Amino acid sequence: MAYNLLKGKKGIIFGALDRKSIAWKVAEKAYEEGAHIVLTNTPAAIRFGEIEELAKKTQSIIIPADATHVKEIENVYLKGMEFLDGKIDFVLHSIGMSMNVRKNRPYDDLDYDYFMKTLDISALSFHKIIQVAKKLDAINEWGSIVALSYIAAQRTLFRYNDMADAKAALESIARSFGYIYGREKKVRINTVSQSPTLTTAGSGVKGIDDLYDFTDRMSPLGNASAEECAGYIITLFSDLTRKVTMQNLYHDGGFSSMGMSARAMTMYSHSLNCEECAHKLEEEM
Ligand SMILES: NC(=O)c1ccc[n+]([C@@H]2O[C@H](COP(=O)([O-])OP(=O)(O)OC[C@H]3O[C@@H](n4cnc5c(N)ncnc54)[C@H](O)[C@@H]3O)[C@@H](O)[C@H]2O)c1
After folding, report:
1. pLDDT at 50 > cutoff 80
2. Does residue 252 line the site of ligand 1, with CB under 6 A?
3. Can you say how many angstroms the Cα of residue 181 is from the centroid of all Cα atoms in its chain?
4. What local confidence, expressed as pLDDT, does residue 49 receive?
5. Which of 10, 176, 179, 243 is deepest in the core (most CB within 10 A)?
6. Are 35 and 10 within 8 A, CB to CB?
């Protein structure tokens, strides 16, 4: 059901790869809610993903850009404003990647070139996307910028690795830039800390299925899906949340406030009787 929450608004969506992507669901919902949008992703993602289909469905165009390159981001805003015929009202940063995670490098044996890439792609790109927008004066007053985060920014989660540091930086950028952009142009900046979600990026984390099951059992409302996440993000793009800024907002079914739930405890008690599983995990530590 649509509510026309974004009627007449214009937005740029970074990070839709395929139907599972959180950004894909946001693009679909933004369109349903009356927005005009532009999509962007890396040339490789455009080649191998399914984004053309999304562009057709949402009457948008795709502007290729590597979000670590300032010039390419500038091109996204300039071409985007041309296509949308004016300034932007919302921007989604839904970008993340760690080669250390992909290559199974543990946190105490990181490859530092990979680490720099993790930070550049998953955190600094957020700063670049905001800084370029501000310099070009590309965003209307009361505009809204949102990035996707994860609770590993606050709490250590086995195997999340250097992405945790990237998410901590991402959330900090939302606060630091949120102050400046809010003060000068009334643009708000927030991060949404989402439940584990079975997307391409999510599946890169080894053991995501077990983590997914654990957080689902721990959360009174269960894990939040990509589609539910998109619904929440639409409210942050809408005029109903104009005074929300510089926040990290949990969208996780209550997981972030839990210590132990009955459902998780039951599973844990069962697993204490499974010596083989426990042994396998101990070997990894
Ligand atoms: N899936 C989860 O469990 C989960 C949970 C919390 C937060 N998040 C965050 O949500 C965001 C979106 O991820 P997703 O789960 O939808 O997975 P996804 O794989 O669908 O999206 C990740 C996107 O990042 C893009 N990307 C990678 N390098 C890039 C670059 N240099 N320039 C531009 N784009 C680049 C990819 O092409 C892809 O579209 C990420 O920030 C991720 O960390 C995911």
Report:
1. yes
2. no
3. 20
4. 80
5. 10
6. yes
What does residue 173 show for φ and ψ, rounded to 5 degrees? -60, -40
CA 26 – ligand 1 centroid, Å: 13
The continuous run of DSSP H or E covering 141 comes out as strand 139-149
pLDDT greater than 80 at residue 14: yes
Distance 232 CA to ligand 1 centre (A): 17
Encode pLDDT of 204-234 as tens digits: 777 888 899 999 999 999 999 999 999 999 9
Which residue carries 């490789």 as its tokens? 44
Task: Spell out the alpha helix ranges (H) of 136-274.
Answer: 163-185, 200-203, 208-218, 226-237, 262-271
pTM across the whole model: 0.96
| CB of 22 shorter than 6 A to ligand 1 | yes
CA 195 and chain centroid, separation: 11
Q: Which of 21, 91, 210, 215 maximizes ligand 1 atoms within 8 Å of its Cβ, making it the mutation to test the pocket?
A: 21
Cβ of 27 below 6 Å from ligand 1? no
Which DSSP symbol is given to 1?
-
Report all structural domains of the chain as residue ranges with CATH numbers, in order of start: 10-284 (3.40.50.720)
81's tokens:
């404003």
How far, in Å, CA of 81 to CA of 63, rounded? 11
> What is the C-alpha separation between 20 and 231, in angstroms, rounded?
15
Please state the atom number of ligand 1 nearest to the C-alpha of residue 16.
Answer: 39
